[in-house]
Amino acid sequence: MTAPQLNLSAFANGTVVPLEAVPDPVFAGRLMGDGLAIDPRDGVLHAPCAGRIVQLHASRHACTLETASGARVLLHIGLDTVLLQGEGFSARIAEGDSVQAGQPLIEFDAAVLERHGKPSLTVLVVENSDEHRISWRASDGSIAVGAALLTLVGAEPVAAAVEAGGDETASGWAVVAHAGGLHARPSALVANAVKAFTATVEIHLHGKRANARSATALMTLGVGEGDEVQLTAVGARAGDALEAAIVALETVTAAAVHAAPAAPAAAAPARELAPHQLGGVIASPGFALGTTARFEHGVGEIHEQGEGEILERRALDAALHAVIGDIEAAVAEAERRGLADQAGIYAAHHALAEDPEMLAQAQALIGAGKSAAFAWRAAAQAQCEALVATGNPLLAGRANDLRDVERQVLRKLAGDAASAPELPPHAVLLADDLLPSDFPALERAGVAAIVTAHGGPTSHVAILARAQGIPTLVAVGPQLAELAAGTLVIVDAEHGVLDTAPGEERLAAARAEVERRRVARAAALASAHAAATTADGVRIEIAANIATPADAREAVKLGAEAVGLLRTELLFLDRTTAPTEAEQRADYQAVIDALEGRSAIIRTLDVGADKELPYIPMPAEENPALGLRGIRLCLAREALLTEQLRAILAVKPLAAVKIMLPMVTDLAEITETRAVLDRLAAEMGISERVQLGVMIETPSAAVLADQLAREADFFSVGTNDLTQYALCMDRVNAALAARLDGLHPAVLRLMAQAAEGAARHGRWLGVCGAMASDPVAVPLLIGLGVTELSASPAVIPEIKAVVRRVTLAECQAAARAALQLSSPEAIRAHVKATWPWLDASA
Prior knowledge:
Blueprint: E1 5-9, E2 14-18, H1 25-28, E3 34-40, E4 44-46, E5 51-56, E6 62-66, E7 72-77, E8 89-91, E9 98-99, E10 104-108, H2 110-115, E11 122-126, E12 132-137, E13 141-143, E14 148-154, H3 158-165, E15 169-175, H4 184-194, E16 200-205, E17 208-211, H5 215-220, E18 228-234, H6 238-250, E19 277-279, E20 281-284, E21 287-294, H7 309-336, H8 340-353, H9 356-367, H10 372-389, H11 393-414, E22 428-431, H12 439-445, E23 449-452, H13 460-468, E24 472-474, E25 488-492, E26 497-499, H14 504-526, E27 541-546, H15 549-557, E28 563-566, H16 581-594, E29 600-603, H17 631-636, H18 638-649, E30 657-661, H19 667-683, E31 692-696, H20 699-703, H21 705-708, E32 714-717, H22 719-727, H23 745-760, E33 764-767, H24 778-784, E34 788-791, H25 796-804, H26 808-818, H27 824-834
C-alpha cells in the first residue's frame, strides 16, 4: 500500500533556504525536526496547509499546527526572537483555531527585528518527522506563498513496529497536582520516578512531547498546575513505568521557594560618584585594595565538523564523565567544609550533566557529522533558549546553571587548548559575569575582591562570595570592560563604589583601612577562645549557628562556646525518602562529638511549603511563609516529630543537648510538644529532663512571652523571620531588601517585650538570627537583656571583640534611647555616635 502524502505550500514570499544553512545549530542540526526555511520579503506568515493551531507561543514569534494526519508543523519567525517578548509580532489566530492553507497566521515587523539585530529568516520544521518523512522539498530560489514547498509521506505506524519487536506499550492520562506545574523540583521527581525502568516514557501536552527522564525537557513543556497530560510508555514493564510517572505527576506538592541567603539591597551608591568611580550593586560586603586581573572563560576553538562519529561520541562521553567526577568532588569538599549552599549549587549541576535529553540532542548532531564540542554547545543552548522561552523567571534562572555545565564540558573537550585562568594572588578580579564552577579557581588564588559587569546580589556566585567573605560588586555595567588589567583600584563593597583611579591621598587612606581591618581581625582571632565579658564584667555567651559536623569543627576553631542553633532540615532536604531515626541520631551525635564537650541547641525540623520535601505531600499554599510549617507541621505529622525527638534523646551525653521549637505562636504548641517528649523519654527509660526552648520569630510569641516562659526553658530570637512578620515584608523580595532591617524600632520593641517576659520567669534570652552577627546590633541586644548570641562561625571573633569593649550600663542606656527612635537609620546613627569605633566590619 502506498503511504499517504501531505503537501505543504510556501508560508511566506521570499527565498528558500536549506535547513542546514540556517545560522542556528538547533535548526541546522535538525534537533527540532526536518524542514526548510524562507528568507521573507514581507511580514506575513501564512499556513502551509490545513490544520489546527495546537500552540501559539506567548511571544507570538512561533506557532505549531497539527494536520488531520497527525503531522506537527512548527513555524518559527526569526532567530532568537523569543528575547523580544512579543515586540513587533501580532497574531491573527489563537490556540485551538482551525486554519486553511494560505490563511494569515502571524504578522511581524521586519524593521523591529532588524533594529534588535534579529534575522527574520523563518523556519518550518516537522516536529514528528520520524513519523512524517519529507519525500520532496523545493530547491533554493525565489518562492511565493502557496507554491509547493514540501511533500510528507507517513511512516509505518509505531504500533506495528512495537508489535514486531515484542515490546510492551501503555498509555494513560494524568492531572498535574504540583503547585506551579512542572517546575524544577517536580520535574526532577518525575524523572527520578521513571529512572528505575528501561521503558521509555513520554509526556505530551499541546502537541509537544518530552522524555520523562529529562527534567530539563519536562520544564520546557510549560505544564501548569491542573493541566491534563497524556503519557505513553514503550518497553519492558511499560505499564509499571507509566504508573510510576502518573503517581509522580499527581502527587500533591507545593511550589518550592528557593530563597537565597539575604543579600544587600541592590541600591545605588550612597554618595555621588566621581568621573573615575563606577557604581555597583553590593553582593558581598567588604573593603579591598588591589591590582585588577581579568577572568576569561577559555574553552578552546570549536570546530563545527567532527572527525568521525565514533571518535566524537567517545570524546563527549569522556568529557561528561570527567565533569561529573569534578562535580562530585566539589560537592564532597563543600559538604566536608560545611558549606551547605555551595554543595547544593554543585549538586544541581550534577543532574544537568546527566540530562538524557541534552545528551540525545548532542549525539544526534554528532551522528550528522558535527564535532562533540559543537554538538554539546548546540544542545545546551537549545535547552537554555527553551527555559528562557517559558517566561518563568525561576526556570529562566536555571539557564545560567546550564551554561555553567556547558562551559565545563567544553573545557574538558578542549583539553590543553583550553586556557586555564591564571590569576595573581590578592588580585581584584574583573569579569563580565561568573559561574559557580569558576569559584574554586578564585578561592585558590585568594582574590582580594570580585567585580562583575553583570549578575545580581542573589546569584549563586554572590552566595559563594558572601560565604567566603570576599568583597564583591556586581552589575557595574559595560564600562567595566574598559578598565585595563593591572590597574590599582579600591573596591568599597560597603558603599557600592569601584574607584578606578584613586589619588595618592585616597590610596594612603585605603592602605591604612586595609591594615586596620587586618590588625583588628588578627587581634580578634588571637583572643577568639577567651570568654566574651563586657568591660564591666557581664558574661555573654557566644555560640554558633551551624548545620553539619564540619560546621561544628569550624565553629570550635573560631572560638564558639556552644551551638545556639543546629539547623536539622539539611538532613531532610534533597532526598526522596525521610532520614531514618538511626541516620538522624548519627548526625546529631557527630555534631556533639565535634564540639568537644560544648552543648548544642537542636532545632526541630523547620520545613513547610516553602522548603518542599517530596516524601511529605503538602497542599499548595498561596502564602507558604504563613502556612503549615515549623512546629505546626511536626505536630500535624507527629511521626516526623516523634522520630526526630527519639533520635535526639539517644545522643550521648544527653546533658549536652537542648531542643528548640520553630514558629511557635502560643502556649499549646509547647505543652503538646513537651507531652510527646516526656512520653518518649519514659519509653526509652530516660529520667533526665531535656531543656525545651522556643524560637521567638512570630509577633505573637514575643507578645505572649510571659505566658510561654511558664513552660519554655529558654528563648532564642530568630530575627530574620521576626523582622519579616513584624514589618509584613517578604524577606526574599529583592525590592524590599533595603527596608527589611532588624534594627527597625518595631522589631526592637517586640524583642524588649520578649526579654521582659523571659525575665519574669527567670528564663534566659538568646538571639540566633542575623542580628547576632551584626556588630552594630550587638550593644543594643545586650542592652535589651540578651545573654547569648549565636552567630555565623566566621564572625565569632569579631563579635567577641565588640562585647569586650562595651559596658552593660552603656548598652542599656543605648537600648532605651533606641526604642524611642523612629527609624533603623536613626538607631544605627545613635549606636555609632555612642561607640564611634564601632563599624559593621569591626
